[in-house]
Amino acid sequence: MKAKSLMAGALVLGVTLAVTGCSVLDQVVGRDDWKDWTPTQTSLQISAGGSVTESIFDTLDQNYYNADELQDLVARSVKSYNAEHGGHAISVPAYSAENGKIALTLVYRTPEDYASYNQVSFADGPMLDVQMSGITFPDTFLKVSGSNLTDQGVSSDEALSHKEYSAAVTVADHVVQVPGQIRYLSANAELINSHVAQPKLQEETNASSETGLVLPSNAVYYGTESDTEEAEPPAKTQQLMYIIYEKDAEQST
Q1: Is residue 1 part of a domain?
Q2: For the chain, which residues score pLDDT lower than 50?
Q3: Which positions ≥6 away from 163 have C-beta within 8 Å?
């Protein structure tokens, strides 16, 4: 009888969906449009194959660079990095600076290329590999189910026991999309949806730099070591954001 009731309920739901679209299903299981998510602020998108796409959105300070100068800086910096690291370690598929608004996309071949080029801590891969890289994990995590937090005080022992999961560790200054269901987050992060997290908003400081606009990719502005030895990039606050996720089944094959 129970099986028949479930089948009957499924048929009713199916007919309702055919008439009303997905709104009823959204109410039943909760809407989560992660596949439709498009970055509108500086973000990293990690692919199932390991490449990293950085989307940068910012405002150009004309006191320091005009649009053509910035584009030239980006091109020379990437060219220099690729000359040292081989082939197409970094590509620049999109750049625009309309009305002083910067929109820049860089694609990194590997997580290591992103970390090296930007001179920041960054890792992504199977849980055990990230742990073996020497990265220290926090003591507690937020537990996630779908697009909701279910527990805000989970021990790292529980989170790190899932060796079948993957982990992304990045400087907490941008949105991050991972190729799987987020299962745990560090306490300084919050969910956007089941695959996307961002740093928790904090009060802005007045520590504005006199060096002008500094995008997340400091190398764009200050060059790599092979470009110049005169200027060091400004030190970044290395507060890290941790995302532990289970790769999507269709992407893990």
Answers
A1: no
A2: 1-30, 203-214, 216, 221-236, 252-253
A3: 126, 127, 128
**SS3 label, residue 66:** coil
CB 10 within 8 A of CB 209: no
Q: What is the pLDDT of residues 108-143, one digit of tens each?
A: 999 999 999 999 999 999 999 999 988 899 999 999
Q: How far apart, in whole angstroms, are the C-alpha atoms of residue 185 and residue 187? A: 6
Q: How many domains does the chain have?
A: 1
111: in domain = yes
> Does residue 2 sit within a domain?
no
Torsions phi, psi of 24, nearest 5? -65, -45
Coil vs helix vs strand at 145: strand
Structural Rg of the chain based on CA atoms: 21
- Grouping H, G, I as helix, E, B as strand and the rest as coil, residue 80 is helix
Report the first-to-last Cα separation within the chain, whole angstroms.
38
In order of 174, 225, 232, the CA distances from 229 in angstroms are 28, 6, 7
Please state whether beta strands 166-171 and 122-126 pair in parallel, antiparallel, or not at all (unpaired).
antiparallel
Nearest 5°: the CA angle 253, 148, 146 is 20
85 falls within a domain:
yes
Tokens of 153: 């005080």
Distance CA 198, CA 185 (A): 10
Residues of the chain with pLDDT > 90: what percent?
Answer: 51
- Domain membership of residue 228 as a residue range: 41-202+214-247
In 3D space, the residue among 51, 35, 29, 45 whose CA is nearest the CA of residue 197 turns out to be 45
Other Cβ atoms within 10 Å of 248 Cβ, number: 16
Residue 221 has a pLDDT of 45
* Two tokens, residue 226: 């092979």
Question: 178-195 burial by CB neighbour count: b if 16+ within 10 A, else e?
Answer: bbbbbbbbbeebebbbbb
